[in-house]
Amino acid sequence: MTEYDVIVIGAGPVGENVADRVVRGGLTAAIVEAELVGGECSYWACMPTKALLRDAAALRAARRLPGAAAAITGDLDPAAVFARRDRFASGWKDDGQVAWLDQVGISLVRGHGRLAGTRTVTVTADSGDVVTLTARHAVVLATGTSASVPAVPGLADAGAWTNREAVSATRAPERLAIIGGGVVGSEMATAFSALGSSVTLIARDGVLPNVEPYASEHVLAALRDAGVDVLIGGSPTSVSRDAAGTVHIALADGGVVEADEVLVATGRTPNSADLGLDRVGLTPGTWLTVDDTLRVLDASGEPLGDGWLYAAGDINRRALLTHQGKYQARAVGDVIVARATGAAVEDAPWGRHTPTADLRAVPQVVFTEPEIASVGHTVASAERAGLKVRSVEYDLGAVAGAALHADGYAGRASILIDDEGDRIVGFTAVGPDVAELLHAATIAITAEVPLDRLWHAVPAYPTVSEVWLRLLETAGL
Question: What GO molecular function annotations does the UniProt record carry, in alphabetical order (predicted)?
């Protein structure tokens, strides 16, 4: 077949979910992929990253309990960690994902997809063969992002790692330098220091600068306790690798960092440079702008043509997280079916076809030591949005459930209260295993639960979730 109802370029979690919703709705779909079906998350990001981090987190948790600590007679086994990571990355083979596509009735076309005109996609296979596909209703771009490598002289020639090389590494280098203190840099510093590397984290803008300051301070302290050399404000000016293989990173302050490998973790760039955007009047290499139902907009701010082109996931820059991309994908697949079949389009805020949570309630977990869980606004982002909020904080270590969870439990949680609406618009927690607190906060913010009603959501005792009661009490309820 060369004609389908919907063509999706990109077979990561976002593209897979778009195609699945389309097929469930009774339409036909083809998905185009140049690499592995399953995308960045399955092989080079979420899954292998969490696998690299989990063993060390479990060991730390056991060592915080005296009875369990007494049973530990050895140290972390890096080879076993890497082997488990390999299993969760499926050995970097996509047979299982391809089998799923076939099972649910989604056609897979291997090769590099490019727009060739309205509802038309050309696919170039590795062999050079080209096939032209036509969509009856829509084309969806779900090609995600790649690591952004800054233009530091010598960095590319030094064989710098990105997240791909880091999470697929077969050993921990003796010395690892990481450029960038964001999520990837902080998580990889946590992982490789536990695996035995001597890690230097060059964090020009600080460690996790986009979270609440108290949360980043906990992570910074833990990294330093783990032996990570954190250089706040460090800015590389040049990088070189000598004949012996040592990487030399010159810093603006005159210092030099030496390492066996250097990892670049300075942000993401959209995979849109070679998508044929110029063939439909758009600018290659840019983030795509979309409307409330994720139709791509042209330079005038109108849906392209008759609204046949959509962009879901990282490429539209609404929320660069896999779970948010999949959320968008479900909305996109359903709205395409609705428009194709003449059904009603629910495009009001919080409607079925409008991923409103991307703008108001995005949950995220940073799997450092300790974890950071957050959803909605921080104090800084609320101020930028013009909201009048008050922050209420509470010491997690003072909660009975947390004290039972681990000896010496240290952490903190906060809520942001919109005084005009008397509701929560932001939540952040830092501490061991705080990820399990996050969904309750996401529900409270998404549902806009009034504080006087939230007061009646009684947390079980003794659990870490009791912090909700303490936060509300501190807020004056």
Answer: dihydrolipoyl dehydrogenase (NADH) activity; flavin adenine dinucleotide binding
The per-residue pLDDT for 323 is 97
Residue 462: asked if its preceding bond is cis (omega within 30°), the reply is: yes
Is residue 233 a known part of a binding site? no
254 is in an annotated binding site: no
**Residue 174 in domain:** yes
184 is in an annotated binding site: yes
Count how many domains the chain has.
Answer: 3
Residue 399 pLDDT greater than 90, yes or no: yes
Q: Flag whether 181 is marked binding.
A: yes
Spatial distance between the Cα atoms of 260 and 263, rounded to a whole number of angstroms: 10
pTM score: 0.94
187 is in an annotated binding site: yes
Q: Tell me: do 315 and 446 sit in the same domain.
A: no
267 among annotated binding-site residues: yes
Residue 180 is labelled as binding a ligand: yes
Q: Is 186 within a domain?
A: yes
Is the separation of the CB atoms in 336 and 138 below 8 Å?
yes
- Domain edge (last residue) among 248, 266, 284: 266
182 annotated binding-site participant: yes
Q: Is the pLDDT of residue 420 over 90?
A: no
Vertex 361: Cα angle to 337 and 149 (nearest 5): 90
Through-space distance between the first and last CA atoms of the chain, rounded to whole angstroms? 63
* pLDDT tens sequence across 122-174: 999 999 999 999 999 999 999 999 999 999 999 999 999 999 999 999 999 99
Strands 247-251 and 256-259: antiparallel
End position of a domain, from candidates 302, 334, 357: 357
Do the domain assignments include residue 103?
yes
